[in-house]
Specification:
It is found in: Cytoplasm. Oligomerizes as a right-handed, spiral filament on DNA at oriC. The protein folds into 4 domains: 83 residues, 2-Layer Sandwich (GMP Synthetase, Chain A, domain 3); 171 residues, Rossmann fold (3-Layer(aba) Sandwich), CATH 3.40.50.300; 72 residues, Helicase, Ruva Protein, domain 3, CATH 1.10.8; 90 residues, Chromosomal Replication Initiator Protein Dnaa, Chain: A (Orthogonal Bundle), CATH 1.10.1750.10. The protein contains 19 helices and 10 strands. The chain is of the alpha/beta class. It binds adenosine-5'-diphosphate and magnesium ion.
């Protein structure tokens, strides 16, 4: 792939730029829907290269990749360090783990703390407390990240031990191949002799009887040998149609840990940590705008961020303005069902929530039972509509500085008060609903 991509890039760039920035890049791997590239040159020079590539050439590289493969691949850039790329280590290679998934870069929130804590416990002391560990939750919520973090953590702390990361699809595919090529014994050895088996997306096993049968025996062999098994799925075993009862029973023997969609606070924290990695500085306001508007899952949050960075790349800037962020997210947001939100919609919803008579927020009343909801409505108008203080003022019949102070006050309270965060989340959800 990379050869063709560079050929394309060479046509589109000046020779000097190409030789300086693109030529030294080494492709490391294509895994799933992401491609990892490595820039040489030690940490300092490497980070300069990386930020250049991310700001100026990212969108160009991504579109060339798309031209060549017909797919959009996520672009990851890492540094080449002196210790060499990890792919050299045979044990790590055998594990099929992607080193980018770690506990260190996994943000813990109310939505995933059980799954994270259980994963860490398993990685520290396998086959001790929870065996198997069964992590379940919707798409893009961090299951693959967590299950791989377990493997990476364990391998780092127990060099020489054997870990295998696989998916139920890969398991099935390899099983079918093994039967055809009469290499069943190799297949069994591969899966039954490890210290830690990580099986991602086990829900896909359910439709394949042969694979279920084989996995049942794999599971038993490992379990009886005192080895740890970790499974992920998009749903509970009991809610997986066609999953054999004996597998259901086994999957439920250990701990079932769910991952829920991230709340506002967690979305904010995730965005901030991803931004840190990207060598960009964002205004708090923009991070809040994204966290308020992209609520579905972490993959979409990352996608939103990538779009913003791609736009920044096109416009050759690394200061991201609200205008740029809105432009970048316009398409994503327009595909979400949304009503036309105006300040008056916000006022209506806040009044409804606080059971206030219609129109009370725009009266002159200053008692706290009205002033507080009014300030919240002003704050929401500012963060989700990005209206100017003056036009929010017009809608509330207040002046610009009153609005500014109210927004500032609520913003500060939100960072300290989780109950208020939840109220605002709920309000924003109501506001977006038709
Ligand atoms: P799933 O396997 O549940 O569909 P993934 O593990 O692939 O989801 O997560 C999607 C993306 O979101 C990945 O890039 C992952 O690194 C990131 N991600 C998910 N949860 C978190 C989190 N809590 N902190 C940081 N990144 C996360
Ligand atoms: Mg996954």
């Amino acid at each position: 792939i990379w050869g063709n991509v560079t050929k394309q890039l060479r046509d589109e760039m000046s020779t000097v730029a190409f030789d300086t920035w693109i030529k030294p890049i080494k492709p490391v791997e294509v895994a799933g829907d992401s491609i990892t590239l490595c820039v040489p040159g030690g940490l300092q020079k490497g980070s300069l290269n990386k930020s250049m590539i991310m700001t100026k050439y990212r969108s160009l590289i991504e579109s060339s990749i798309k031209n060549v493969t017909g797919k959009s691949l996520d672009l990851d850039v890492c540094f080449e360090t002196n210790s060499g790329v990890q792919a050299d280590d045979p044990i790590k290679q055998e594990s099929a783990l992607n080193p980018k998934y770690t506990f260190d870069n996994f943000i813990v929130g109310n939505n995933n703390n059980l799954a994270q804590a259980a994963s860490l416990a398993v990685a520290e002391t396998p086959a001790h407390k929870y065996n198997p560990l069964f992590i379940y939750g919707g798409s893009g919520l961090g299951k693959t990240h967590l299950i791989q973090a377990i493997g990476n953590f364990y391998l780092t702390n127990n060099p020489g031990k054997r870990v295998l990361y696989t998916t139920s699809e890969k398991f099935t595919y390899e099983l079918v191949n093994a039967i055809r090529e009469k290499t069943n014994q190799d297949f069994r050895n591969k899966h039954r002799t490890v210290d830690l088996l990580l099986m991602d997306d086990v829900q896909f096993l359910a439709t394949k009887e042969l694979a279920q049968e084989e996995f049942f025996h794999t599971f038993n062999a490992l379990y009886e040998a005192g080895k740890q098994i970790v499974l992920t799925s998009d749903r509970l075993p009991s809610e997986t149609p066609h999953l054999a009862d004996r597998l259901k029973t086994r999957f439920q023997m250990g701990l079932l840990a769910d991952i829920q969609p991230p709340d506002y606070e967690t979305r904010l924290a995730i965005l901030k940590s991803k931004i840190e990695d990207e060598y960009f500085t964002f205004d708090e306001e923009i991070v809040e705008y994204v966290a308020n508007n992209i609520t579905s899952n972490v993959r979409d949050l990352e996608g939103a961020l990538k779009r913003i960075l791609a736009y920044a790349g096109i416009e050759r800037t690394n200061t991201i303005s609200m205008e740029l962020a809105q432009k970048a997210l316009k398409e994503i947001l327009s595909t979400l069902p949304q009503r036309n939100i105006t300040i008056s919609v916000i006022i209506d919803e806040v009044e409804k929530y606080y059971r206030l008579p219609k129109g009370s927020l725009i009266t002159k009343k200053r008692s706290n039972d009205i002033a507080y909801p009014r300030h919240i409505a002003m704050y929401i108008s500012r963060v989700i509509l990005d209206e100017s203080y003056a036009s929010i003022g017009d809608a509330f019949k207040r002046d610009h500085s009153t609005v500014m102070n109210a927004v500032k006050k609520i913003k500060k309270m939100v960072t300290e008060d989780t109950e208020l965060q939840e109220i605002i989340n709920e309000l924003v959800t109501n506001i977006k609903k038709d």
